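Issue 218. Parser rejects a valid record. Input:
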Amino acid sequence: MATVYYDADTDLDIIRGRKVAIIGFGSQGHAHAMNLKESGANVVVGLREGSSSRAEAEAAGLTVMSPSEAAAWGDVVMLLVPDQHMAGIYESDVAPHLEEGQALFFAHGFNIHYGAIEAPEGVDVAMVAPKGPGHLVRRQFEEGSGVPCLLAVHQDATGNAHALGLSYAAGVGGGRAGILETTFKEETETDLFGEQAVLCGGVAELVKAGFDTLVDAGYQPESAYFETLHELKLIVDLMFEGGLSWMRYSISETAEYGDYTRGPRIVTDETRAEMKKVLDEIQSGAFAHEWLAQAREGAPYLHERREADAGLPIEKVGAQLRSLMPFIDDKQA
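Output the parser choked on:
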């Protein structure tokens, strides 16, 4: 069984006694910085000159420095920038300022696990990874709840890395929901697999295929959208609240019978074999090398697919329908 910690197992005074430099102010960066500040920690934000996030960070009452200045100031440096840019920022702005006894933190194990970043001896290296988008981490903190966090220690140079990580996690609200102990390897590989096979890649392809199947069969696109995309949130909410059993309890017996008998015809043995291949590529580092190589070229395939999928019929139909539902705060990418 996994080890899970809660607020009672942490000491917030540890992080309150450190100087925390948050490098980046995107989805996770803004949540970490603001939650830690409101938990009593001494926080600065490191942003490049001309960053569009500078005004937002300053409006939140945070001190903004360059990444290099922030890294020199802080004794806990949390890197919250995109995976593909992190190693470069680390080498140019963070590594020159790391000294014995300091701590280097991450919210995803990618760069450490695949060897893109190698911290010097004498520096604590740990990960505090909230299991939710940054805007949710921030909102739930403000509401008095929290998002569960993963905690891993890669290098315990001082003997205090674990306690420091627990304190940091509590500071962003993780101790309210649970702080689960893991490793950089486990977090990285399970996170990538979940994104690719289920949460993003798997679900997106399933939704698109279901929509296309209904429309190609002559059904109205609006009906297809409601059945294959809109209702997905309602089903996932039930799973979130009580697992698969609660979802199945809450739907009709007709739907439940169809779930058991037709679901395995969609996710077949061939699908499961392909999932294993995806996991193999993650475990071997093949995916990481592929993605970093793409990123060095400006990520052409990513931009090509992003543009192509934005024009799909399901996206156009969905935008029209959401505009008629004022209770949905429709987001535009």
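Fixed in the parser; the record now loads. The longest helix spans residues 221-250.
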